[in-house]
Amino acid sequence: MSNNEVDRNVTKFAIIAAFGGFVFGLDAANISGALRFVNSQFELSSMQTGTVVGVAILGVILALLFTGSFCDRFGRRKVLLAIALTYSLSTLLSAFATSYTMLVVGRFIGGVAFASITVSAMYIGEIAPADKRGKFVSINQLLITLGSLVAFLANYCLVLSMDSIAWIDNENVWRLMLGFELVPNIVWFLLLLTVPRSPRWLVAKGHLEEAREAFAKIAPKEQIEGLILSVQDSLNKESRNTPVTQLKTLFSKRFTLVLCVAFAYAIVQGASGMNAVLFYAPTVFEQIGMSVEDTFMQTVILGLVAVIFTLVAIRFVEKWGRRNLTLIGLLFISIAHTSIWYGFKSANYELSQEAIVKIQQSDIDVTLLQPLVGKTYATDVDLKRELSGIYSKKDLPLVSGAIINSTISINAFFVLFGLFAFLAAFNMSIGPVMWVIFSEIFPNNVRSVALPVAAFVQSISSYVIQQFFPWQLENLGAANTFLNYGIIAFIGMLVMAKILPETKGKSIEDIERDLVKA
To answer: Is the backbone of residue 374 left (phi > 0), alpha (psi -120 to 50) or beta?
Structure first.
């Protein structure tokens, strides 16, 4: 097989494996658009809103407890197939939810399927050649951003259609947002049937002929035997391990540096604020004072920025290296969050008579607002607290955006610049590069438990952001919330500058010799 054919095959298989990232991106962006309407329909508190979003990460955490052993027992491909079916079940339960509880259950099951990101990275890391592994693992992040972009576009179109299509309204538009991802779920399942099993997993199971057949699809013929011997050499350094034995090995002193790198990266990537922007994008833009249509339009632009800069990362991850992209990205993330903080910190809110007229143009009953005319609020927290006292939980999510839009005085440039700069920096650095690092630094003898463990830490970090972001907006305000993310990113940059090695162009076995103590 020629090198061009090999490249085409690896690219095709990597994209199919990573398509779970596309579905993940769809789900994240869909729920961000649906939240406004879900909050109104089920009359949710800020903590319940956080649960609707954050419960998916709890599903991830549960799945990660079993992902490693399932991957070892059944292989990467079979686990991905099961995950694709789980996504479909989650979509159906969420779209047809008749209660807050049913929606939470559907979202939790979808979280179980989010483990596809980890399994995809594991699979891609095992089929891609060393000099292109970073590029192919980064496809995961590209598919996430593409999925988000498609969902943002769909959400925007659905919001616009509420004015022209009579049967689409506040009561059902969110069901359409959550339900349309069923088609990509089914497509992904069918595509997964065409990919080969991981040759490294086949070697570990002793299926050498099948491993040769799998390697023949992703490597030149003359390299196959050498690849098999290299994998066997790595596997034979220690006896075959049970998951418990692998965990003991992973948490031994030999792996101290590896774990420090993985855990630090996981915490920083999860806690730097990406999930706040991704899962709550319309809510974030609402804080600036945009109309419903404008907030959804801005999410589409956010999606485009994410895709463009993920492509930048894929283009340069092998040239610039993992370390440089990480450090540069974290620096710009810190600057971006500082800009957002400054924009919100300088804002104030005045409920003038002119504001009342403008609010009324949005078909909102302003009778309840009349006693507040002439009042000025220094922060969004003060205004929202006042509004929560006069509007019901059903009405507040639908009217708050228009009220903020009419009362706010803000230099939106700093907030918009910060948001778009953050998306750009994240998606060209720590977004895709984390999965590249995870796919590279763990040796084969602990890989099947190490990747889920690292993802477990990242999931906990992400969960805290997703669960508490609505509460933070309500109690800390947008300015302080984003300032906290900036501080985390800056500290992360200092830590990474100290401990993060460069892994580009090295085989998994070479990286093991460099990082793991004898």
So the answer is: left
